[in-house]
């Protein structure tokens, strides 16, 4: 049983939860500057993030299992290698989906999370089909992850303001950029299989330029968030550090050398997401933001 759980966590790459969860927590942290903190809201955010991502990732592995089996880079994943069975992964997807919807009940009497839970889940699962019909599939993924800060804000405050939208926009451009970089590894394979991606359509050099522009958008959005949210100089320093890390990420990956894509994909981006959250916590704790978060 323990071994099966470990394999399921490997299947969904549970460690990659660090990409979206810190931004949901950052949005919640900013929302709690204007509304009372409730432990059930924090628990709800954690459970919803874990279950929604697990359902989406398991569903993706199910839908892509034949593609993964044909790709030398992914042929040893759990479903192609028959380490896990299709019924087991399908059941895991259903359980996580139901658990996600049930977890939204923790936000009551705010009913918006419950009302939006099924449409949000459908959008997350829909990403798995995107590369079959659009080269911009990377931005479907980024739109899915950008829902994290918006959803956390709505769950706590029940409204939408500039603060979560700017944070969500930063996530949108950030995830889109690094997913394009990651997809460069499969450019030739995708082209041969009739799958769509930015690298497959425009080539690796152009894809890396598009990813760079996307990451410029990330920094612009984070600077706008700093200006409008009441965060202070410490958060600004964090944004500048994020810019430096993104430059380092693009230095690591070159059109003629994709050997360090995994370092750029996980290590650098994990530092960005977790680091930005910690910097925001420190900023608010030290009171460097002045009067607090703008409504």
In short:
This protein is mainly alpha-helical and 295 residues long.
CATH topology label: Tetracycline Repressor, domain 2
Strand content: under 5%
**Could you report the average pLDDT, rounded to the nearest whole number?**
93
Give the helices and strands as they follow along the chain: HHHHHHHHHHHHH
Q: What would you report as the Rg, rounded to the nearest angstrom?
A: 19 Å
CATH C-level category: Mainly Alpha
Termini gap = 48 Å
EC number: 2.5.1.39
GO cellular component, one term: plasma membrane
Family: Belongs to the UbiA prenyltransferase family.
InterPro entries: Polyprenyltransferase_UbiA-li, Prenyltransferase, UbiA_prenyltransferase, UbiA_sf
Sequence-ordered SSE layout with sheet pairings:
Elements: H1 2-11, H2 21-31, H3 39-63, H4 65-70, H5 86-103, H6 112-126, H7 137-157, H8 162-183, H9 187-193, H10 198-202, H11 204-229, H12 233-252, H13 261-286
Molecular structure report:
There is one protein chain. The chain has a single domain, classed as Tetracycline Repressor, domain 2 (Orthogonal Bundle). It is mainly α. Helix 3 runs antiparallel to helix 5. The N and C termini lie far apart (48 Å). The longest helix has 26 residues, at 204-229. The radius of gyration is 19 Å and the shape is globular. The protein contains 13 helices and no strands. It is an enzyme of class 2 (transferase). Its EC number is 2.5.1.39.
């Amino acid at each position: 049983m323990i071994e099966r759980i470990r394999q399921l966590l490997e299947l969904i790459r549970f460690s990659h939860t660090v990409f979206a969860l810190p931004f949901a927590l950052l949005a919640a942290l900013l929302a709690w500057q204007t509304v009372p903190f409730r432990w059930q809201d924090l628990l709800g955010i954690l459970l919803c993030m874990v279950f929604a991502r697990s359902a989406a990732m398991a569903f993706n592995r199910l839908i892509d299992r034949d593609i993964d089996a044909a790709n030398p880079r992914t042929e040893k994943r759990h479903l192609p290698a028959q380490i896990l069975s299709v019924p087991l992964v399908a059941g895991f997807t259903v359980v996580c989906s139901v658990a996600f919807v049930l977890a939204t009940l923790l936000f009551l009497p705010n009913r918006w999370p419950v009302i939006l839970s099924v449409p949000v889940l459908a959008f997350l699962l829909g990403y798995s089909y995107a590369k079959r019909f659009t080269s911009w599939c990377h931005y479907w993924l980024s739109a899915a992850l950008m829902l994290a800060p918006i959803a956390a804000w709505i769950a706590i405050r029940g409204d939408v303001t500039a603060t979560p939208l700017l944070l969500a926009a930063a996530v949108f451009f950030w995830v889109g950029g690094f997913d394009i970089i990651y997809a460069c590894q499969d450019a030739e394979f995708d082209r041969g299989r009739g799958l769509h991606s930015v690298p497959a359509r425009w080539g690796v050099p152009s894809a890396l330029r598009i990813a760079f522009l996307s990451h410029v958008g990330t920094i612009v959005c984070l600077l706008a968030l700093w200006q409008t949210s009441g965060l202070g100089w410490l958060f600004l320093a964090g944004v500048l550090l994020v810019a430096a890390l993104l430059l380092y990420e693009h230095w690591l990956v070159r059109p003629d050398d994709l050997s360090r894509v995994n370092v750029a994909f996980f290590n650098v981006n994990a530092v960005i997401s977790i680091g930005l959250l910690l910097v925001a916590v420190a900023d608010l704790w030290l009171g460097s933001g002045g009067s607090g978060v703008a409504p």
